[in-house]
Design brief:
By secondary structure, the chain is mostly helical. The chain has helices at 2-61, 66-71, 80-84. The N and C termini lie far apart (89 Å).
């Protein structure tokens, strides 16, 4: 009987150690999920605020001015409905065209 008792106790300790590691990982996961939810809510509020500011700015400056929209290369390809309807994503924006300058050319 004693012959089986020592390996059984060893296996029990190993199982308990693994369970402790798993419990710790699950607790860390819950903590990170909570932090992620706070970041998500904050980002959503900030996106909503920026969207409202953009909408107010576009309304104030005359969104219907097609020439102005064509002049802004960053908004090329986005419709007014996309911008104002909440389908706007900064990932959709194109970077403004830049001219390449050599390292030795002056900026001015």
């Amino acid at each position: 009987m004693a012959f089986y008792l020592q390996p059984a106790l060893h296996l029990h300790r190993m199982l308990q150690d693994k369970q402790d590691v798993l419990d710790e990982a699950l607790q860390q996961k819950r903590t990170i999920e909570g932090e992620l939810e706070v970041v998500w809510e904050s980002t959503s509020k900030e996106n909503r605020r920026i969207r409202e500011l953009l909408q107010a700015t576009l309304e104030r400056t005359g969104v219907g001015d097609k020439a102005r929209a064509r002049e802004d290369p960053c908004l090329a390809g986005l419709s007014q409905g996309d911008v104002l309807g909440g389908h706007f994503s900064y990932c959709d924006m194109k970077p403004p065209p830049t001219t390449r300058r050599g390292l030795r050319e002056p900026l001015g």
